[in-house]
Amino acid sequence: MKSFYLTALILAAVLMLGACGSEETTGEAQASPTQPQTTNTIEETKTLAHPQLAEPDEDTVCEYCQMTVYIATHELGAFTAQGIKADGSNAFFDDAGCMLNQERVDGEEMDKFVRDYNSLEWIPLEEAVIVKSGLKTPMNYGFAFFSESSAADAFIQEQGDAERSDLAALDAMSYERHEMRMEKMGDGHGHGESSEHMEQGHSHDGDGMKDGEE
Predict the structure, then answer these.
(1) Which InterPro entries match (predicted)?
(2) In angstroms, rounded to a whole number, what is the distance separating the alpha carbons of residues 81 and 111?
(3) For the whole prediction, is pTM greater than 0.85?
(4) Residues 67-82: pLDDT tens digits?
(5) CA torsion 178→184→186→189, rounded to 10°?
(6) Which of 11, 111, 150, 160 is deepest in the core (most CB within 10 A)?
């Protein structure tokens, strides 16, 4: 009789252990169901470039001042700007200030882009980190643009005469230039920028080079 009870206890224990193991396995399966993983891709997080962005060629001239627009590989190509108009057409500018002034002439805004000073990639003007420096840009505005704050800070340290700026400062400077241009045109002195700005800009290629270049 004792052996019968002992056998029954052993069988009961085996059955209980089996049931516990089954419950643990079921619990694990429920705790970690197979689900598709979702991760942010670069395309989801970065600012998408405008699909109609283009590149100037050797014959492109500034829509505002009619001076040469520099291609990306030129030493002054980092300062080229581009606007995309409401009708989808591309307008190129030798310096960012000319782009703002063209909006004044047309009476309508464009999607405005400038080049990152280091990578030369197009970036929206409104998103750029703007630095004012002593660089001789094509129309002597002196503004450089960056997609990263760290790159702008490194540039400021390297140049020594540069500082953070903003779109309002660029707009104010371009407006002053535009008013001077309109005054000159009213006096019958032609359609270009003032002679002072021309001497410091396109008319002397050497003056349009970065600090330290010969």
Answers:
(1) N2O_reductase_NosL
(2) 11
(3) no
(4) 999 999 999 999 999 9
(5) -140
(6) 111
pLDDT in tens, 3-44: 544 455 555 554 555 554 444 444 444 444 444 343 333 333
Distance of alpha carbon 116 from alpha carbon 144, whole angstroms: 8
Structure token digits, residue 16:
């209980």
What is the bridge-based pairing of β-strands 90-93 and 122-124? unpaired
In 50-135, DSSP assigns E strands to 81-84, 90-93, 111-115, 122-124, 129-132
Q: Which amino acid is at 56?
A: P
Distance separating the N- and C-terminal Cα atoms of the chain? 111
Helix axes 167-186, 96-106, angle to 10 degrees: 60
Distance CA 99, CA 93 (A): 6
Exposure on the CB side of residue 74, measured as CA atoms within 13 A: 19
Burial bucket for residue 104 (CB in 10 Å: 0-12, 13-18, 19+) = middle
125: nearest Cα among 79, 179, 73: 79
Query: Both tokens of residue 24?
Result: 């643990």
> Domain boundaries in the chain?
51-208
